[in-house]
Amino acid sequence: MSAAFRKAAKARQRPHRERAQPAARTKLGLLEKKKDYRLRAHDYHKKQNALRALQKKALDKNPDEFYFKMIRAEVKDGVHVIKQPKDEVTPEQVKLMRTQDIKYVEMKRLAEAKKIERLKAELHLLDAAGSGPGRHLFFVDTEREAQEFDIATHLDTVPELVDRVYNRPTIAMLQRETVKGPTDPAHLKKLAQQRKNQYDLLRQRIEREKAMFVITQKIQTRKDLLDKTHKVKVKKETATRPAIYKFKFQRKR
């Protein structure tokens, strides 16, 4: 057989291709076929090396060695489980700690409430610029009176003092004596800014006092849950209120 004939016969032969493994069966491992023998051999030797390393580590281990994980771990149903340490605090101790927490938060809340009352007394009848428009309603009988209504005339003051919501003297008072207090625009602007800062501080303290009140309620709720009385949650806990539970009624002797 000539070389040309063998070459032509080889060209007519179809290449042999092995069937690919279905994707659904890849989890079952490598197929017993020719092209996978290297992968299977590599996996086998890798596992054998790991076993030899573990055997060597076990032989080199000191039998007198001790560490706390030995008594904190165990094997259950073939699974290595680490034991969780038991809570060494009794329910009575937890209740006492909750009570101390409530007392501390309540003390801070009462201190904040006193500061709020003090600020309110200092800012009584004062209105900060930008703190929200106030409304003063005037009632008339007819539409003509509403069209001809003059605020300065109704309040018996000059038009320049209409916008003032405090210390607004009448015309008779102005005739008897001059306006008391600062009249310089720059000074008035400075006082208005100071007043606005005080109102901002008052608003922050009010929000802080409300937050402490919510914290007190949540701590009290957690303290009540320590009782073994049957309870059912009615509403979930939110940022502005604690969770609401319905406790089973028990008659006390």
UniProtKB/TrEMBL annotation:
Query: Where are the stretches annotated Disordered?
Result: 1-25
**Subcellular localization:** Nucleus, Nucleolus
Q: Which UniProt keywords apply?
A: Nucleus, rRNA processing
Q: Which InterPro entries match?
A: SSU_processome_Utp11 (IPR007144)
Segments of skewed composition (Basic residues): 7-17
Example GO biological process term? Answer: rRNA processing
Return the Pfam families for the record.
Utp11
Family, as annotated: Belongs to the UTP11 family.
Question: Which named protein is this?
Answer: Probable U3 small nucleolar RNA-associated protein 11
